[in-house]
Amino acid sequence: MNDFIYHIPTKVYFGKGHLQHLGDELRRFGTRVLMTYGGGSIKRIGLYDKVVAEIRNAGLELFELSGIEPNPRIDSVREGVRLCKEHHIDVLLAVGGGSTIDATKFIAAGACVDFDPWDFLDITKRAPINNALPIVDILTLSATGSEMDAGGVISNPQTGDKIGRVAAPMLPKVSFLDPTNTFSVSPYQTACGAADMLSHIFEEYFTTDKDLFMLDCFMEGLMKTIIRYAPIAMREPDNYEARANLMWASSWAINGFIDGGKQQAWSCHPIEHELSAIYDITHGLGLAIITPRWMKYCLNDTTVDRYVQFGVNVFGIDASLEPMVIADKAINMLSEFLFGTLALKSTLPEVGIDRTNFAHMARKAVQGDVLHGFVPLRQTDVEKILEMCME
Amino acid sequence: MNDFIYHIPTKVYFGKGHLQHLGDELRRFGTRVLMTYGGGSIKRIGLYDKVVAEIRNAGLELFELSGIEPNPRIDSVREGVRLCKEHHIDVLLAVGGGSTIDATKFIAAGACVDFDPWDFLDITKRAPINNALPIVDILTLSATGSEMDAGGVISNPQTGDKIGRVAAPMLPKVSFLDPTNTFSVSPYQTACGAADMLSHIFEEYFTTDKDLFMLDCFMEGLMKTIIRYAPIAMREPDNYEARANLMWASSWAINGFIDGGKQQAWSCHPIEHELSAIYDITHGLGLAIITPRWMKYCLNDTTVDRYVQFGVNVFGIDASLEPMVIADKAINMLSEFLFGTLALKSTLPEVGIDRTNFAHMARKAVQGDVLHGFVPLRQTDVEKILEMCME
């Protein structure tokens, strides 16, 4: 069991009646606000108008950066940095999902340095992130957990890279989590978000690191929460209970609490990032396709106990069955959930991906060496996992 | 489902190899440190010497307040406040269990005002707590959760009061949670700590407020953790896994996370505080005696569902049984755990309490009116619950 440091000072306003605190929270950091968002969805649901009204009422000066993409790109970050410097921005307000918040994190860091923000991500440079402008966010999609963690992932279409980075100064200061802001999320995006959250938990749960039993219980509770409520939110988009459970689960699936000092590398995320770097598919969808195959590939006599615990505690599989039977059943039940209940596409060809870049993507996923995850993976292992995703 | 604000900026160093950070963390707040502790136990286990060495190595100036009692008293708080003012203390370092940390919280607040610190607690005054000196703590007992919350309870033998108060400025800035510092905790104190933690969870779990399913899962996970590891820690005092799980569970049982906006008053804690205010028994022991009786008293057709969920999910009782059968079984299994497995005394006479003060204690517990908890309790209800504790 490893030592760890737990420190999440983000202040979270959870619920539907908190937006009137937005002005006061922003003003703690200054008067010049850069609001960042994606496409038009926040205007369609009326959130944009409400936010602007709060900012105006608070007497703050508002600047805007719109058009942040899903799988956000370094060019959006560069544009945000330019605006921060030009307008002497005091505080960033990200209104959107993980993509908007991720981009905003690197804008916040980039505004404090003189070099190109891609240098934070470029694996040959990894420029230090010592400062960032304060970030406040209003979450509109339950998925990435970016609202309560210090990480983000940025794509660079010029280099074909999609790279993540974690740095404490990028942790949001204040997050507004209002489940009603996710009522308009489509069944498909709700499903992708659920797959993303589940993957965050699997990456910590399927590990050979010695674990705190307490955290196992919490992870299993998060999985059960997502499995219970994602289908409800898909059927009844304005079911508050479902949206609230998914929203709070998204934050706790990746804010660091459940890792409890585990050091092992993640597996499915690095592989998926290579897929979406080239093919620009939705992150959660890519994870859904990869995950059950990765589980199958890693299952052996040494690892089977973890699958048994997962199958029994999350899916309620009869604990008296043979371990390998439980493990197979658990993987099948997960597949049935992802591709049946959530109706996500289940193979790479269905999302337009063929074998062309398998070798290239696999090599990048393991960074030319070994991915030291649940089961260590070399390039050839990743290629085999991708091959399993073909049908 | 109620809105809530989640905000716990406490930085937690969890594990056995972090003490070398103590000097740096204290120095963030200044150079003049008042270390507070209880009896001699921190000297016996060698912790005192290690802490003093770290403080000296960091070049900080050390002052001390020792002798803080279990069920800490206002006179210790007053003495601490006097020392803070006399020596212009910058930061408080509490080394001990919940009693030491609780007292230190009110010392920290009292050092910032000119009036008597009892005014913070006196229910006729409730003086505002707007500031407090920064608090760092090193936990030596897993029980109260004081290391990660903003509350504390102080006794006043002159008035016969034992009163709690929560105020954000009293939240510890940094907590060192090293499970090895609890290796020397006796089986009896380990059991009392477990009973205290369980009660913190029950007070939030047994509620008629609409709940987040996710938090139910977490609460059930915490209960299972405590039920699993308390007996192990009693048998094998230096079992790191057991001590680590109990320690982290103690913090999460009461740091506010699991309440998720629930507004209902607590029940067993107010009743127990009246017991220990007069009889000075260990808080966790008092809670253990009261809890199963309170559960029995509150069980009816309206409340039974919660008992069923508890029995099935925590004790694994067969869900196909009749609800009332499951509920009774669950209460019996809890009693068996507290009085059998944990070997705690099970009745008030066994701890030297007779009926003399029942009416008085019951009236104070409900503050002369109604305790609006899981089931509303009037003075006569509390008297009946106390009567049930007689055998």
Structure summarized in a few sentences:
Two copies of one chain form a homodimer. Chain A has 391 residues and is an alpha/beta fold. Chain A has helices at 22-27, 41-44, 47-57, 74-87, 98-110, 187-205, 213-235, 240-252, 268-279, 283-298, 304-315, 323-341, 358-365, 379-388, and strands at residues 4-14, 32-36, 61-65, 91-96, 135-139, 151-156, 161-166, 174-177.
Explain how this protein is built.
2 copies of one chain form a homodimer. Chain A has 2 domains: 11-181, Rossmann fold; 186-388, Dehydroquinate synthase-like, alpha domain (Up-down Bundle), CATH 1.20.1090.10. The first copy, chain A, has helices at residues 22-27, 41-44, 47-57, 74-87, 98-110, 187-205, 213-235, 240-252, 268-279, 283-298, 304-315, 323-341, 358-365, 379-388, and strands at 4-14, 32-36, 61-65, 91-96, 135-139, 151-156, 161-166, 174-177. Chain A starts with a strand and ends with a helix. The longest helix of chain A is centred in the middle third of the chain and has 23 residues, at 213-235. Helices cover 46% and strands 12% of the residues of chain A. The first copy, chain A, has a 6-stranded parallel beta sheet with strand order 1-8-5-4-2-3, sandwiched between helices. Chain A has a two-stranded antiparallel sheet with strand order 6-7. Chain A is α/β, with parallel strands linked by helices and 391 residues long. Chain A is globular. In chain A, α10 (283-298) packs antiparallel against α12 (323-341) and α10 (283-298) packs across α14 (379-388). β1 (4-14) of chain A pairs antiparallel with β1 of chain B, so a sheet runs across the interface.
